[in-house]
């Protein structure tokens, strides 16, 4: 990891650039072609693309009931207990996010309401290219079920032998997923956006994924389907002062670096001594990882910054808008108060980000690439839409009618005004 000491503020944006951005245009073109093929040829395109990108010849993308049932015998009881515990925590946190209906009488006789309604049919993408992220099933299916979505469809890449990891299948059944398909990448997102002969069209597509998946969501989100947000290659920023333990900080940085070669880990610290120790710890801990090669590639585009103050640390965090921000300082709450842009914040020396990845209760599907400036991570509300209602009495219309007539007249919209006037004429 390269270290920068007191980088000038006007350089921050450049030094905090996300990895491989220059490849975005190539990825966009490739994904556009995939989308076109799925729109045109449906299941036939899925078969060809699974062969091309996943190296597997599939007759059908459907995961059968027999496959799902067989998964039960393939998980240890201890893993099942861990997944159940995580599910409970995620359900507790997301269940508490239910919003009460809003009802306000804005002026006498004019009542406005807002009701939350579940999105009927949702499509969940669960990454499986380099690791079968069954924890993502929990993060998407648990809130979908609590929200009351009727159809919960899940797509995940097939493995080379044409199967899906039993952990994904078992967790999907636990969380009420209605149908599962073995399709990955941009083609899975396109299939859920348009529908194919086998895969039903979803009203909204959710889930994280690599840059192909994320590009497909962004392109289709403009034209064919609603999406949660861009949730691409994982990233973490750690803010640390002299009270932080280098061993902990290095472990946190590596925990996201191991996701993929295009992941990024950034340390911002007020302590030059800590910066040195963390760099050494990263090298040491890296050697012991089973995904050391992947993490090492991510570290090539990762950075350490030494800055002057807590205020500068927070400013750099706001400039980066990290998916995950870990604050390992003497007073993390005070630093967090300065944070405006982050997907999810982890406070103190004993709050590793991986706890949020799996089991604490918060959602791990979070905005990346700086999108935390405007998007929230997945939450219960992501699976709902709001419908407003209003009801006016004759008195209410008398109270508000003239205001509307004046505004409609000023916009030159006579018919709008008349819809009020014809009624007022009957109840003067
Ligand atoms: N932001 C978040 O909330 C979040 C959460 C979890 C995981 N992630 C990220 O999800 C990603 C998972 O990536 P992954 O690759 O392991 O799995 P993935 O399931 O996202 O992607 C695998 C699929 O990509 C497609 N693909 C691979 N190479 C391709 C190519 N050259 N052209 C076209 N398509 C191609 C294949 O169809 C394959 O099935 C990681 O980057 C991880 O960091 C992000
Ligand atoms: N850190 C990922 C989100 O960027 C989520 C995840 C799943 N499994 C492990 N981690
Ligand atoms: Zn993770």
From TrEMBL:
Pathway: Amino-acid biosynthesis; L-histidine biosynthesis; L-histidine from 5-phospho-alpha-D-ribose 1-diphosphate: step 9/9. Keywords: Amino-acid biosynthesis, Histidine biosynthesis, Metal-binding, NAD, Oxidoreductase, Zinc. One of its GO terms (molecular function) is histidinol dehydrogenase activity. It catalyses: L-histidinol + 2 NAD(+) + H2O = L-histidine + 2 NADH + 3 H(+). The active site is at residues 323-324. Its EC number is 1.1.1.23. It comes from the Bacteria. Substrate binds at residues 234, 256, 259, 324, 357, 411, 416. This is Histidinol dehydrogenase. It comes from Rikenella microfusus. The gene is hisD.
